[in-house]
Design brief:
By secondary structure, this protein is of the alpha/beta class. It is built from 16 helices and 17 strands. Bound molecules: iron/sulfur cluster (SF4) (2 copies).
Length: about 550
C-alpha cells in the first residue's frame, strides 16, 4: 500500500455530491444555435479560420491555435456561421469576448475522422494532433495539453499524476466519467504516458468516489498504473496538493511540477486525449454537472457553445427561490450574470443557487488575527497578511508574501470567523499587479523604441558628417596635388568653362534679337500707334494686312 503524505491545511465543506452523481451521464440535445468562444484556454485565443456565411461540418476547425501556448476550437455541429463578434462568455470579469456563432442545420455531418497510430508516430505529431484537436486541461485550468505533455524537465518526468480527486463540493462530472468510461480514460492515460515516458503513473481519487475508484482499478489492470484512493479533504484536487499527497514532493514557490519531475493532468482530459488521438475527434463537448436548486440534478454530455440557460433546462429548470448561478464549485467558482453565455471547455459545473442552499455571508467584520486562515491554507501562506497588503494596496508586499502561489481555493475565507471575503481581495490584488506589470512592460517597450530611434538618428547624422568630411578631404587633396604639379585644378577649370559657355550663349541670343528687330517685324508691330479707337485700329490693321498679302502674291 502506498504511503500518503498529508498536505498542510485543508477544510471539510459539505460535499453535496449525492444530488447529481446517482444518475448516469445523459446526452444533451442539439441546440439551434452554438456560440463558440475563441478564448477557451490559457494562452493566445484561437484565430478564426472561417467567415460569416460559411458552411461548416461537425468537428471542423473554426479557430486555429495562435502560437505555441494556444489551442484550436471547432464547430460543435454542422451548420452555417452566422456571426463572428463579441458575445457574453462565462468569465469572472463579466466582459464579452470574440465568439463564432453557428446555426446548426440538424444534419450532424461530421468531418472525416482519422485515428492516429500514436505508438508509431513522432511524439511531436501526436502533440500537434492534440493542439489541433483543442485538447486542454478540463479540470478548470484549461492549459493546452500539447504543452503540458512535453517532458521538458532536464531529468525527464518521473511521475505522471492523473487527477481524479474532484474535491470541490457539488461537482460530480469526473466521478461519473470514471464510473462509466474508465476504459477510455485509461486509453488516454496510455497516450499521455507514451509521450511523457514516466517511471510511474498514479491516479488519485478521493475516497468519497468508491465506484469511480473501483472502475478505474479494473480498467488499469495489467497496465502498471496505480489507482490511489486519498482521504476526502478540500483541496486535495489542487495540483500541488495532490502531488504532495501521492509523492511527498513539494513544488517550490513560484515553480511548476515539471521542475520536480512530475506532471499532473485531469482524468477528463485523458478522456479527450483518447478521443482526439484514437478517434480523430476534437473537443466539441464535455461532461457538465447541473445541480443545486434545479428539479433534476444530473451530469450531461453537452456541446461546447450551448447557452447556459438551455443547460439549466436540461435539469428540469431552476426551482423557485433561485437567486443566481455559479460556474464551477462554490469554493473556487464565480457568479454568472448572463445565462446567454455559452458552455466552454472550462465549465465543469453549473449550480443554481438559492438562499436556502447558499445563505448570504454575514457582513464582514474586522480581522481579529486569530490565525485560522493560516492553519487552513494548503499553500502555507499567510492569508491575513495577504489580506492586509491587498486591502492597503501594498502590492509589492503582497507579491513578496507569495500572493501568486495562492490557488484561490477559498479555504481561508471558509474558516474566517470575521467572514472576510479574502479571495476577492487576492483576486483584486493579482489583477492590479498584472495590470501594473503590463503597463510597466509597455512603458519599457516604448522607452526602448525611443532609444533605438535616437540611436538611429545619431548614427545617420554621424554617417552624413563623415561623408562630407571625406569628400572635402578628397577635394582638398586633389587641389593640393594640382597646385603641386602646376596643372590647373580640374574642378576650377570645369567651373570656368561652364561660365564661359554661358556668357557665349547670352551673347548669341542678344545678337539674334537685334537682327530680328531690324528686318522681320510682325504685322502688329507695324500698326501705327496712337489711335485709341479699337475699331479704327482694327480696320487699319486689316488694310495693312491686305496690302502686305498683295505684295507677297506678286
Ligand atoms: S481567519 Fe479571518 S479574522 Fe482570523 S486572522 Fe484570518 S483573516 Fe483575520
Ligand atoms: S485562497 Fe489562497 S490564501 Fe486562501 S487558503 Fe487558499 S491558497 Fe491559501
Amino acid at each position: 500500500m502506498r504511503t500518503l503524505y498529508k498536505f498542510h491545511g485543508g477544510v471539510h465543506p459539505p460535499e453535496h455530491k449525492e444530488e447529481s452523481n446517482r444518475l448516469p451521464i445523459a446526452p444533451a440535445p442539439l441546440p439551434k444555435r452554438l456560440t463558440v468562444p475563441l478564448r477557451q484556454h490559457i494562452g493566445n485565443p484561437a484565430i478564426p479560420v472561417v467567415k460569416v456565411g460559411d458552411q461548416v461540418l461537425k468537428g471542423q476547425m473554426i479557430g486555429a491555435a495562435d502560437g505555441f501556448i494556444s489551442a484550436a476550437v471547432h464547430a460543435p455541429a454542422s451548420g452555417t456561421v452566422s456571426a463572428i463578434e463579441p458575445h457574453a462568455v462565462p468569465h469572472p470579469s463579466g466582459l464579452p469576448d470574440l465568439c463564432i456563432t453557428i446555426e446548426a442545420d440538424g444534419e450532424e455531418r461530421w468531418i472525416e475522422r482519422a485515428p492516429l497510430d500514436y505508438r508509431n508516430a513522432d511524439p511531436d505529431a501526436v502533440r500537434l494532433r492534440l493542439r489541433d484537436a483543442g485538447v486542454v486541461g478540463l479540470g478548470g485550468a484549461v492549459f493546452p495539453s500539447h504543452v503540458k505533455l512535453n517532458p521538458g524537465a532536464p531529468a525527464g518526468i518521473k511521475t505522471l499524476v492523473l487527477n481524479g480527486a474532484e474535491c470541490e463540493p457539488w461537482i460530480t462530472s469526473d466521478d461519473r466519467l470514471m464510473r462509466e468510461r474508465a476504459a477510455e480514460v485509461v486509453e488516454g492515460i496510455k497516450i499521455m504516458a507514451h509521450l511523457m515516458r514516466p517511471e510511474e503513473v498514479l491516479i488519485g481519487i478521493e475516497d468519497n468516489k468508491p465506484e469511480a475508484a473501483a472502475a478505474m482499478q479494473a480498467a488499469c489492470r495489467g497496465t502498471g498504473y496505480e489507482v490511489v484512493v486519498v482521504p476526502t479533504l478540500y483541496p486535495s484536487g489542487g495540483e500541488k496538493q495532490l502531488i504532495k499527497l501521492l509523492t511527498g514532493k513539494e513544488v517550490p514557490a513560484g515553480r511548476r511540477p515539471v521542475n520536480i519531475g512530475v506532471t499532473c493532468s485531469n482524468t477528463g482530459t485523458a478522456y479527450t486525449v483518447h478521443r482526439a488521438v484514437n478517434h480523430g475527434e476534437p473537443v466539441i463537448s464535455r461532461i457538465v454537472t447541473v445541480t443545486g436548486n434545479v428539479l433534476e440534478p444530473r451530469n450531461f454530455e453537452t456541446l461546447i457553445g450551448t447557452p447556459i440557460a438551455e443547460i439549466v433546462q436540461l435539469a428540469g429548470g431552476a426551482r423557485p427561490g433561485t437567486t443566481h448561478y455559479i460556474m464551477g464549485g462554490p469554493m473556487m467558482g464565480f457568479g454568472l450574470d448572463n445565462l446567454n453565455a455559452p458552455l466552454t471547455k472550462a465549465v465543469n459545473c453549473v449550480i443554481s443557487a438559492s438562499p436556502a442552499l447558499f445563505p448570504p455571508a454575514p457582513p464582514p467584520m474586522p480581522c481579529i488575527r486569530c490565525g485560522r486562515c493560516a492553519q487552513a491554507c494548503p499553500c502555507e501562506l499567510q492569508p491575513q497578511e495577504l489580506f492586509w497588503f491587498s486591502h492597503s494596496r501594498n502590492f509589492d508586499k503582497a507579491r513578496a508574501y507569495n500572493l501568486f502561489d495562492c490557488i484561490e481555493c477559498g479555504a481561508c475565507s471558509y474558516v474566517c470567523p470575521s467572514h472576510i471575503p479574502l479571495v476577492s481581495y487576492y483576486r483584486f490584488a493579482k489583477s492590479e499587479i498584472a495590470t501594473r506589470d503590463m503597463e510597466k512592460k509597455l512603458a519599457e517597450q516604448a522607452r526602448e523604441r525611443f532609444e533605438l530611434k535616437q540611436q538611429r538618428l545619431e548614427r545617420e547624422k554621424q554617417e552624413k558628417a563623415a561623408r562630407f568630411a571625406e569628400k572635402a578631404a578628397a577635394a582638398a587633396a586633389a587641389k593640393a596635388a594640382a597646385a603641386a604639379s602646376g596643372v590647373e585644378d580640374p574642378e576650377a577649370a570645369a567651373k570656368k568653362a561652364a561660365i564661359q559657355a554661358a556668357v557665349e550663349r547670352a551673347k548669341a541670343k542678344k545678337a539674334e534679337a537685334a537682327a530680328k528687330a531690324e528686318g522681320a517685324e510682325t504685322p502688329a508691330e507695324k500698326i501705327p500707334q496712337g489711335d485709341s479707337d479699337p475699331l479704327r485700329a482694327k480696320a487699319r490693321a486689316e488694310s495693312y494686312a491686305a496690302s502686305t498679302e498683295n505684295n507677297t502674291d506678286s
